[in-house]
Amino acid sequence: MQIGANSLLQEMQSLSGEIKPSGLNSGFGSPITQQVSNTSGSDFGQLLSQAIGSVGELQANAGSLATRLDMGDTRVTLSDTVIAREKASVAFEATMQVRNKLIEAYKEIMSMPV
Q: Exposure check for the chain: N or C terminus, fewer CB within 10 A?
C-alpha cells in the first residue's frame, strides 16, 4: 500500500482533530473541518498498524531500489532511488512524531489527579 502525500495529510489532520479542540488550527494554517465518525479503539489500532506497515513498505521499496542501483540495474535511476529514500524518510519521521505525541498525551493523562 502506497501512502500519498494528500492521504497522509488527511489522516494526520483527522488524528489532530481528535486531540485538539475544534477551534484551534491544525498547524497547516486552516481550521480543522474533518471529524472522525468512528473512534473505537480497534479502528484506531488498525489504522496505526496500517500506517506502520506502509512505512515499512516504503522503506523496503527504497532499500530494494538502492540495491538494484548498486547492482547496476539500468531500469533504476538515481533520482528514483533518492526520491524513494526521501519518501521513506519523511514517512518514518511523521510516524515518529505521531508516536511522540501519543506518548506525551499518555503521560499527561497518567499525571492527572483522580
A: C
